[in-house]
Specification:
By secondary structure, this protein is α/β, with parallel strands linked by helices. The chain is built from 15 helices and 12 strands.
Amino acid sequence: MQAASPFHIMTKPIGPICNLDCKYCFYLEKEKLWDKGERFKMSEETLETYIRGYIEAQPTDQITFAWQGGEPTLMGVDFFRKVVSLQKQYANGKTIDNAFQTNGTLLNDEWGQLLHEHNFLIGLSIDGPQKLHDAYRVGKTQKGSYDQVMRGLEYLKKHQVEWNSLTCVHRANSTRGEEVYRFLKGIGSKHMQFIPIVERKPNQASRDLGLDLASPVDPEMMKDDDPDSPVYPWSVKPRDYGTFLTSIFDRWVRKDVGRIYIQINDVTFAKWIGQPGGLCIFEETCGRALALEHDGKLYSCDHFVYPTHQLGNILEDNLTELVESAAQKKFGENKKSKLPQQCIECPVKPLCNGGCPKQRFIKDKYGNPGLHYLCEGYYHYFTHTAPYMQKMAELYKSGQPPAAIMQLVK
């Protein structure tokens, strides 16, 4: 049975287990949601059920599997050889792609050969130059991971594996946007994602689960939550995030349009020309990007892996029925229906749409709950880039390359 429209699953074959101990990681503590002694490794039965069901459920002929963790390389090369074998077995004429997010520290020649042979797209986590990267991305001994990541990157380059850089924006690097951008260009990144780190200290819902980070709450429940619970000190400040993005944009729009691809810039431009942005946090509704844990449990979203948002288990339930369930549809519609008044009135709403529900935990100027913590930063970015995006959209619609903006800016 096929789903009504395409959907995406972030697959976690080793659950929250990782060889690093990044200070800002929101997923490491999810280990506490399982019983002690849990074997955090996806079984062959679960893997085969998932691959068969995911391919059958997709209504398109091109299908992308996304593998994450924790750290997925801990599953070993043989596990992903099995992945590819099962995908071929159940492809039924469809084209299968694989995206793989890693901290890069365990990559070697064997990994490089596998990833190249089967055209995996790698998302490599790196937060900038060594001092900025090592501020929070540390191992179990609390030593920085920069040297190991750079060694892993060399294996990707050696084996000509396609890769993107995934950069978390936090308190240590958020005022160093241009420096981070120059660094990423210097190591050869052509595709960049900048992911804001925002985590609150525990609210009652998370304390009940024995967790140290606040769990997302429904805006209607804010009165029962801890709306004034402070964010952790490594969280990016709202204005700093906006300035980080615009400082990079200002260099990009003058020198690198068409040569360097930055996710938020691409998404914003797509919206300016009337196309879907393709990034769930800026869409009107969500619910088509789910998360699958190692034991077959399916959750509404990667950021909502909590018992209250478990939809079912693919070993017991039909995947399409879970994706199209009333609970999941309501989860997705809530993103639109529960915007606070300030968002509804905002001139950049068509671009932002209120941001990710996980981070909607402050009150708007009218005292309504559910405003995004990074609202100020997003507003700064979208208004700052608007004149350039408008001109690029005009170029595109007149049949000219958007990269012509660089000459106009000069």
